[in-house]
Amino acid sequence: MVILASKLKGRRDFETAILYYTCQKALKSPDTLDHHVQLATKHPVSFGNAMRQLLAAARFKGFAQAPNTQVQIIVSSDDQLVSSECGRAIANAWKVDLVEFNSQSHDLPLSKPFDLANHLSHWTEDNRQY
């Protein structure tokens, strides 16, 4: 509700609210916030499309089994948008590895880009199939 209310205050407040829930670290960087405002201005999301996305997310049931490929579930320990318990439940159901980053962020590529890239680089190398 806070995010929707911030929409009434203008684009910058709206993007600030989104970053608050997805990557609080980004709020410390005016350049990052400016970039998100510019993206939102250049590529606006209509109210109708936002509602369709929320409805699709609410209706999504997931898959009973993991895809037939190498899979891992990556979560932030204190994600402010989606509980890490969701990722843990998927990893347990699919019997795949769970990787947990110590972070409040939902947007790990924005909050921990080097840590995530390093992890994925090693994981990809370790799981390469020749």
Explain how this protein is built.
The protein has helices at 2-7, 11-22, 30-42, 47-59, 84-94, 108-111, 113-126, and strands spanning 72-76, 97-101. α5 (84-94) links the parallel β1 and β2. The model has no long low-confidence stretch (mean pLDDT 89). It contains seven helices and two strands. A two-stranded parallel ribbon has the order 1-2. It has 130 residues and is mainly alpha-helical. α2 (11-22) crosses α3.
Encode the helix/strand succession as letters: HHHHEHEHH
Radius of gyration: 17 Å
> Per DSSP, what share of the residues sits in E-state strands of 2 or more residues?
5-15%
Mean pLDDT: 89
Q: What oligomeric state is this?
A: single chain
Q: Report strand order across the widest sheet.
A: 1-2
By secondary-structure content and strand pairing, the structural class works out as: mainly alpha
Shape: globular
What is the number of E strands? 2
Main β sheet profile: 2 strands, parallel
Low-confidence regions: none
- What is the distance, rounded to the nearest whole angstrom, between the alpha carbons of the first and last residues? 49 Å
What is the tally of helical segments? 7
Short description:
The chain is mainly alpha-helical. It is 56% helix and 8% strand. It starts with a helix and ends with a helix.
Which secondary structure elements does this structure contain, and how are they paired or packed?
Blueprint: H1 2-7, H2 11-22, H3 30-42, H4 47-59, E1 72-76, H5 84-94, E2 97-101, H6 108-111, H7 113-126
Parallel strand pairs: 1-2
Helix pairs in contact: 2-3
